[in-house]
Amino acid sequence: MKALNNFGFPVLRFNFRGTGLSEGEHANGTGEVDDVRTALDWIEREFTVPIIFAGFSFGAAVGLRAAYNDQRVQALIALGLPAIEVEGRNYNFDFLRDCPKPKLFVSGSRDGFAPPGTLEKLVADFSEPKKMVRIEAGDHFFEGRLREMREAIESWVRQEIVGGL
């Protein structure tokens, strides 16, 4: 959030249905895709800037499904993307194989939901442009490594997004 806002992009951060104080109930990823689409609709109404989707963990997995083919979204950022089955959820990202948008994947080297080698193999099948960054000694939540995560995002945005505007 801070990395994108640092470039002047407005940022919308929200909880999915049934999380925190939000209304509704968890919908196993299906309803949450609709939550992301609703958020994209709101951003489009409120601002006239390129939209960059960024999500963390489950939010990345769900948000990528909503944003990859949305013409309003210029680029995709996935932080802590689960690359293995998590709590009975088996994520499938085949739709990114033909996605021409710039894509950034950032994960900790000790992320239990994206063990080294697993996420790299997954990302290798995605179309270009794409970048994979492993934060050394970072866990799933980037504990103690938030600065490195932010620097990875800022560097990529500077190169892939701001440089192209």
Give the amount of beta strand, in percent: 15-25%
CATH-level-2 architecture: 3-Layer(aba) Sandwich
Number of helices: 5
What coarse outline follows from CA principal-axis ratios?
globular
The radius of gyration is: 15 Å
Q: What class do helices, strands and sheet pairing give?
A: alpha/beta
What CATH calls the topology is Rossmann fold
**Helicity, as a percent range:** 25-40%
Q: How confident is the prediction overall: mean pLDDT?
A: 88
Low-confidence segments, given as residue ranges, are none
CATH superfamily: Alpha/Beta hydrolase fold, catalytic domain
DSSP strand tally: 4
- Mind telling me the CATH class? Alpha Beta
Oligomer classification: single chain
Ends apart, CA distance between termini: 20 Å
Strand order in space, largest sheet: 1-2-3-4
Record keyword descriptors for this entry.
165 residues, alpha/beta, Rossmann fold, globular
Question: What's a quick, concise take on this entry?
Answer:
By secondary structure, this protein is α/β, with parallel strands linked by helices.
